[in-house]
Specification:
Helices cover 36% and strands 16% of the residues. The chain is α/β, with parallel strands linked by helices. It has a domain of 207 residues: Rossmann fold, CATH 3.40.50.1100. It has a six-stranded mixed β-sheet with strand order 6-7-15-12-13-14, with helices on both faces. Bound molecules: pyridoxal-5'-phosphate and zinc ion. Zinc ion binds next to loops.
């Protein structure tokens, strides 16, 4: 059976069954009414497939090489949607990996690569999650949605809502970068700049949704969002071929990208169709946070953390004091033998400039934080000279220029 939708051909090779289960206690949740936290442990849900989510890797590889099904939805078989006519897509995914020779030389790394996630349609990796989250919302017949964001998820949400003809309200911090705020409202969404911490912004969105009978569709708790970000891992498995990736470095706020990647790598391993002849090894996944807000690093290193310690930092995407999926990030670090490091605003700014001057990459401060973290991981010998290391570049530089005095 084949379908045509939004300019793509997607093939349904089998019926997909999945359930929503609490990520902490495993209790089943009713997904016909949308996504909410577990009533018992207040943890967000995850998607579990009743059969292993299995991608026909050999066929997928051929398809990719023929460039027949571009983008994320070419992975239809491993995504939680039943009817392709509900897909809300802007051609996301399929981002390039480029070598970073100049930065690699500076750090003494022979095999350093960047996956250019900022080349997604709204300028950040968030589009991977949003396309799945809003396609699922459409499938459930939801039409009026509320989101909260530091800016990038909000602009992605507003864009895909417009594409899918859904009504979007987006809560952002009052000091969010102008470019992100403009981007959200230009797509036609209602924007609510909100005072207080990033956690206060999230609470305002929850309250607003409840008071107005709207659906709170937060990428921070949505399991559909994670299903979208997991496609980075599938793409990297195809990209790296026989050569295993040793390390990946992520800027981590809520952890949607690092958690999604680990889910993707695990699914590839479980996939019965993956080429058994090849040993499957996966990268160590490392989390980078900012000195201004580092709950995960504190927990990982056993140091004191309290949300009142959050201060203003230039990496706005990772200023999340109480990440609802924080315990999952810690699990990923443990499962992959990864680590967590914290970096200063000064080092983030230095790396933002270095990436521009040495590699021609203009990235936002949050994305540059990953490189400041990489430097620490090289210095403490967690990463060595010949290790294959991939850093996703999560957001485009012009989205957040506050620290550069030109915004
Ligand atoms: C550019 C950028 N990078 C990274 C992150 C962190 O995302 P997460 O930890 O949720 O994967 C964000 C979040 O807003 C972001 O905007
Ligand atoms: Zn639970």
């Amino acid at each position: 059976m084949s379908y045509s939708c939004v300019g793509y051909m997607v093939v349904s090779r089998k019926e997909k069954f999945y359930s929503l289960q609490c990520s902490q206690c495993g209790i089943l949740q009713d997904h016909s009414k949308g996504v909410s936290l577990c009533v018992d442990c207040k943890a967000p849900p995850d998607i579990f497939y009743s059969k292993p989510a299995s991608l026909d890797f050999s066929q997928f590889r051929d398809v990719r090489l023929a460039n027949y099904f571009p983008g994320l939805w070419s992975m239809w078989d491993v995504l939680p949607l039943h009817d392709p006519s509900n897909i809300v897509s802007l051609g996301e995914g399929g981002t390039p990996c480029i070598p970073l020779k100049n930065i690699g030389n500076k750090l003494g790394l022979k095999d350093l690569w960047a996956k250019l996630e900022y080349l997604n349609p709204t300028g950040s990796f968030k589009d991977r999650g949003t396309t799945v989250m809003l396609s699922a919302a459409k499938e459930f017949g939801l039409t009026r949605l509320v989101e909260d964001s530091s800016g990038n998820a909000g602009s992605s949400f507003a864009s895909y809502a417009s594409r899918g003809q859904l009504d979007a309200s987006v809560f952002i911090p009052e000091h969010a970068p102008n470019a992100k705020r403009l981007q959200i409202s230009f797509y036609g969404a209602d924007v609510y700049p909100t005072s207080g911490t990033r956690d206060d912004v999230a609470q305002s969105a929850v309250d607003y949704a409840a008071e107005n009978g709207l659906y709170y569709s937060s990428h921070n708790i949505s399991p559909y969002f994670i299903e979208g970000t997991k496609t980075v891992a599938y793409e990297l498995m195809l990209w790296s071929g026989n050569r295993p990736i040793d390390h990946m470095i992520f800027p981590v706020g809520n952890g949607s990208l690092i958690i999604g990647c680990w889910k993707g790598f695990k699914e590839v391993k479980e996939s019965r169709n993956y080429d058994d002849a090849q040993p499957v090894t996966f990268p160590k996944l490392h989390a980078v946070q900012s000195h201004a807000c580092n709950p995960i690093v504190s927990c990982w290193r056993g140091t004191q953390w309290d949300v009142s310690q959050v201060s203003n930092g230039i990496a706005g995407g990772i200023m999340v004091g109480t990440p609802p999926r924080g315990f999952q990030v810690l699990q990923v670090l443990e499962d992959t033998s990864g680590s967590a490091v914290s970096v200063s605003d000064g080092d983030i700014g230095t790396w933002q400039k270095l990436l521009a001057e040495e590699e021609g990459l203009f990235v936002e401060p949050t994305s540059a934080a990953a490189f400041a973290g990489l430097e620490l991981l090289v210095a403490d010998r967690t990463i060595s000279k010949s290790d294959l290391t991939v850093v996703p570049i999560t957001g485009f530089g012009l989205k957040d220029t506050k620290n550069l005095d030109v915004g």
